[in-house]
Structure formats: structure tokens, C-alpha cells
């Protein structure tokens, strides 16, 4: 029973997302329905309309075993095998190159952000020192 | 007799068995090398080719294509559930929301820098190697979690190569979760926020499970960044789509 209820809630959000996505496409704005469903679900969870325990078992199962849902789509790569057999080495370069570039860029960008935030915080403390320290015995 | 081994139920059974085996191996040896999605793809493809050969005594594109369609039809139930699976991504976002408030700026920076550098690197390398546009668009979301990546391939009109998107995303995850820790060692800083955001943004879910090895806070931050990074890449894809069309 619990699993049914959770499945129904999650599928309902996916369907509502699809409907909204369709309505948006009428005003020439395309946005994936499943992502609208995800954002809606997040909003409903924050608002407390849906409790996390209402979707937890099925949701955690889906998250933990997400990979299997992509297998049929990925196996279709067999239909593109002639193309891919010619460019596989380019794909390898893109996978490694792309990872190294985006990982390094993100790593240092976050480091810089934290450093600047820290500097900003200290500067603030210098100009107006925290009051609590004086009040505290 | 051989028909049993290409029946829909057997295909579902086979997929479950291979996936379960590698999920178990991954858990036991605690290494991204045994990524269940990647190995299931490889074994199912091998199995389909074997069956085509056993039944027909030869391999040609049409026979392979027919058997692949048969497999797809059998396992369509997994495909149908992709929407609900994507909706479930709201759950980790919600459960880890406590780290959003104190790190929102770093998360935002990581998502923007992570997705932009990923998209630009794919664009740059593709231009350098002379890759055709459809293929380049299929690779655009290579650093994004699979559920969002396939949607991005759809936005960019690369649905013909959505299967390639899934495979490349999985490979990126495995490469990232293996190389990421080496880079962190090289760069020296093991701050939770830095480690979580760079692993999550650059190698999505597989990188996130590595981030949990550093600390639960790093893992929580990585879980958030998978989704924010994905959403920023969706926005980039929508803009690219507007420009290209």
C-alpha cells in the first residue's frame, strides 16, 4: 500500500510537469516536463504539502538505482555503431579533456569564492567588531 | 527453445541480473570502476550481438537493429519510469537543504563555472577535432546527471544520439570519480565545500558518492550541486538553442 501511494504521488508530479511543459510550449517556451515536476516536488516538499516520508521509499530506490532506467535508451547506441566506431577516440578526448577542464575550473572558482567571502567577512568584523564579545562576561 | 533467450521477460531478467551483479560488486569493492549502468550497457550489447549471431549465423546492421528494437520494447518499462525517476531528484535536494543556505554563493559559482566550462570545453574540442554538430550537441551535457542530460540533448535536438549522451555521461562519471581524488591530492585543499562542489559539478552522481568518502557534508553539498549544475546547463542549452535556430 505504502509503495503504491508513493508511486502515485511521484508519477502524478511527473505528469503535471508534462502538462505544464505542454502549456508552456504553446507560448513557445520549451522546458522539459520531468524537470518542472522535479522543481514542483521540491517546492511542495519545502512548503510541507508533501512530506518527505510520503515519497521516501520509492524516491530513495529510484535515486539509488537510477542507472538501470537508462539501460534501454543507452543500448540503442547499437544503431549508431558505424558512426561511433569512427569517432570513438574523439569521444575519449572529450570525456577526459572535458572533465579535466571543468573540474579544475570549478575547483579554483569555488576556492576563490570562499577566499573572497572570508576576506569580506574579516573586513566587516574589523570595521564593526562583534558586539556580543563585549557583552559576554 | 532459443526464443526463450530473446523473449521480453528474459531481457528484463537479464538486465536486472547484470545490474544487480555490478551494483553488488561496486558496493563490495567500493570503486567506481564497477559502475552498474556502464557494465550493463556493455553486457547487454554483447548479449544482443551474440543472439543475433546464434540465430542468424551472421551479423549485419539490419538484424542487429531489429534485435535491439526487440530489447528496447521489452525493457521499455524502465524508459517509461524515467520521468518519475527525475522527479525523485527533488528528494536529495530537499534532504540536504541545510547546506544550501550557508553555501549558496559557492554553489551558484560552482554551477555556473562548472556548466559553462564543461559546455565550452566540449565545443572547443569538438571544433578542434572536427566533430559534426549533432554529435557535439549530444555531448554538451556530458557533465550533467543522466536524467537532466537526456533532456538537454532533447532541447538541442540531438535525440538521435541520446544513447550516446547516456553512455558518455556514465563514462564521465566513472572517469571523474577516479581522477577527481587524484586532482584533489594534487591541488591539496580538502575543504568540504571545494571537494563537494568540484566532484558534484564535474562528475555528477558517481562523483558525489566519492565526495561522501571525504565527509558527509561534502557529499551533501555535491548532491545539491548535481541538480543546480544540471539546471544551469538546461538554461545554457535553451540559450544555445535560441541562437542556433
Q: How are the SSEs placed, and which strands pair?
A:
The complex is a heterodimer of chains A (about 140) and B (about 240).
Chain A: H1 2-26, H2 33-47, H3 56-64, H4 71-75, H5 81-127, H6 132-135
Chain B: H1 8-29, H2 36-56, H3 61-74, H4 76-80, H5 82-87, H6 90-95, H7 98-129, H8 133-139, H9 146-155, H10 162-187, H11 192-214, H12 216-244
Helix pairs in contact in B: 1-2, 1-3, 2-3, 7-11, 7-12, 9-10, 9-12, 10-11, 11-12
Q: What pattern of helices and strands is seen along the backbone of chain B?
A: HHHHHHHHHHHH
Helix content range of the residues of chain B, please? Answer: over 70%
The averaged pLDDT of chain A comes out at: 91
Taken from the alpha-carbon principal axes, the silhouette of chain A is: extended
Strand content of chain A: under 5%
Q: State the major sheet of chain B.
A: none
Oligomerization: heterodimer
What is the rounded distance between the termini of chain A? Answer: 58 Å
Which band does the percent of strand residues of chain B land in? under 5%
Largest interface: A-B, 74 and 99 residues
Structural class of chain B: mainly alpha
What do these coordinates show?
The complex is a heterodimer of chains A (137) and B (245). Chain A has 137 residues and is mainly α. Chain A folds into 2 domains: 1-64, no CATH class; 71-127, no CATH class. Chain A contains 6 helices and no strands. Chain A has helices spanning 2-26, 33-47, 56-64, 71-75, 81-127, 132-135. The longest helix of chain A has 47 residues, at 81-127. The radius of gyration of chain A is 24 Å and the shape is extended. The mean pLDDT of chain A is 91. Chain B is an all-alpha fold and 245 residues long. Chain B folds into 2 domains: 2-80; 90-244, no CATH class. In chain B, 82% of the residues lie in helices and 0% in strands. Chain B is built from 12 helices and no strands. The longest helix of chain B has 32 residues, at 98-129. Chain B is globular, with a radius of gyration of 19 Å. Chain B starts with 7 loop residues before the first helix and ends with a helix. Chains A and B meet through α1, α2, α3, α4 and α5 of A and α1, α2, α3, α4 and α5 of B.
